[in-house]
Write a structure and sequence with these properties.
It holds the Pfam family Sigma70_r4_2. Keywords: DNA-binding, Sigma factor, Transcription, Transcription regulation. Belongs to the sigma-70 factor family. ECF subfamily. This is RNA polymerase sigma-70 factor (Sigma-E family). This protein has helices at residues 3-26, 29-43, 47-52, 57-79, 100-111, 114-124, 130-137, 141-160, 163-169. It is mainly α. Helix 6 crosses helix 8 and helix 7 (130-137) packs across helix 8. The longest helix has 24 residues, at 3-26. The chain is globular and about 55 Å long.
Length: 170
Amino acid sequence: MDEAASFDEFVHQHQQALVRYAVLLSGARADAEDLVQEVLTRVYPRWAEVSGSAGSAYAYVRRAITNEYLSWRRRWSTRHIWPAGSELPEREHLDPLRDEHDERLWQLLRELPRQQRAAVVLRYYEDLDDTEIAGILGCRQTTVRAHVSRGLAALRSAIAMPERAWRNHE
């Protein structure tokens, strides 16, 4: 199978899963699709190397998406100008199909720092262990455990907050 066909097959098999993963990181489908497209565009010229390596091509692309997400927000803020008084970009991406309870959980997840959010998503959505997450985030396993622990503590604390107090917190 040639490189282009191999890459096309990979995208066909994994694009939806990669976009779902990126949605959990970015909080918005449009941003997630942009993240995945950006990473796939960068990976394509080196596809023979990526697909022929000892590790999984999916794991490689997932790590690239994570890294792009972690650095993308910093670059994104310098490329986009928002008029004074407008809401922050992350708050405007609401999915009308989610119910109020889901929206609260999404909002709480979006409020976590990027590293904590990535660690929580990798642990509970991608079902990875500390070693795998540490490899993706480029940190130690103890740091992964700290990110997950702090992220979960922040989510538990916010979830325990009464609904009325949470609405006023926004």
